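Recall the central idea of this unit: under ordinary conditions, the amino acid sequence of a chain determines the structure it adopts. In this exercise we apply that idea directly, starting from the sequence alone.
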Amino acid sequence: MSSARSLENFRELVRIPTISRIDVDATEWASFDRFVEVLQRLYPAVHATLSREIVRGYTMLFRWAGKSSEDSTVLMAHYDVVAATDYGWEHGPFDADVTGDGDEAVIWGRGTLDDKGSLVAILEAVEAQLATGQLPANDIYLLFGHDEETEGTGAAAVVQLLTERGVRPALVLDEGGAIVEGFLPGVAPALAAVGVSEKGTSVLRLVVDQLGGHASTPPKLSATARLARAIVRLNRKPFPASLNAPTLQLLSTVGYHATGIYRFLFRTTWLTKPLLVAAFTRLSDESNAMTRTTQAVTMLDAGQAANALAERATATVNIRVAVGSSMAKAITHVRRAIGDPEVRIEVLSPGEPMGVSPTSGSAWEIVRATIEGNYPGVIVTPYVQNGATDSRAFRDISSGIYRFTPFEVSEEERGALHARNERLHVATWLRAIDFYRALVARL
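Accordingly, the structure predicted from this sequence is:
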């Protein structure tokens, strides 16, 4: 398939607003139906050769039967996206506009990075490999989730099915780290960051209930003021910082390629760890998040009228539990930081951090060798992913879970995830297709 045709396929799928919502009744499921239907038209060989099951209404599970089912692989992506309005976008979030020429061509739209870009690249690669007559050595599954951005029920249901069938994948590859430059000082080569674990994702709600009344006679500390004070206290007391084992391995790996004082700092972490912890907490928001459990107040709700005191005030807090910590420790920290028994803490969805996948063995080597073969000169390194992925559903049936998106992205582009002006260079996306083709050819 030509690059131009592949790009048009990508654009058509980005234009479909598959927005998943916590309130499933508010979800426009017609867009999801359309997405599934369009895939059948765009990728006829995939649908003719691979078996397909629809799980929980919209998650798709394809099976490419190999010569053996012993060491199967699961390639994952999701096609739901977070909501977007036209406000602040240079190009409409669902217009899939392409600007620029050659290597400077960019495709704009919600889902280009997260995560239709990976999904479509996988399908383009498999469609092309089917044309060569390839028969995989082992079964290959394609798992395309429909609610990764909300509850992840589709992926969880697929894992339940695979468990019942006795399938224990040797390799699971989902979205995650990317190819980045300039992430660490003193390290010139690009890093291909492969997530070997991910933080636990939990949601808390802070609740203040107290008597309301007329706004003309407010108490010294209203429900909203008490909640605001709790938020400020929590924000002033971040979780303790440290460097976990995968992050130390990352530093050790890049240390051999670092220059000047950084070569010493990164290669002798047993000695320099305190300095590195302090540096990471200040280097960037991204590096700071690598060192600790984080909390972010994402939603506020209070009051029914402009002239009435709120009888209930709530704040939703998104917690990302660091590897090596636990949900229990996170709740204890939040309670102590707030220091107010009148602020009730409710756990809406608990989530513990994932285990750490090995950086040796056949599954890791397949990923590493494919990256190095397609992106010469990059440093392949493990890291802990701050965000959550559908791959967490596989924690009980596979030890070879990795998170890597084969995109070369800048810091500015990474900042557009879940934000306005999400976009991706076309050349970067086309190279991702080559990556998945090379990966599939190894399986």
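The chain has two domains: 3-198+354-442, 200-349.
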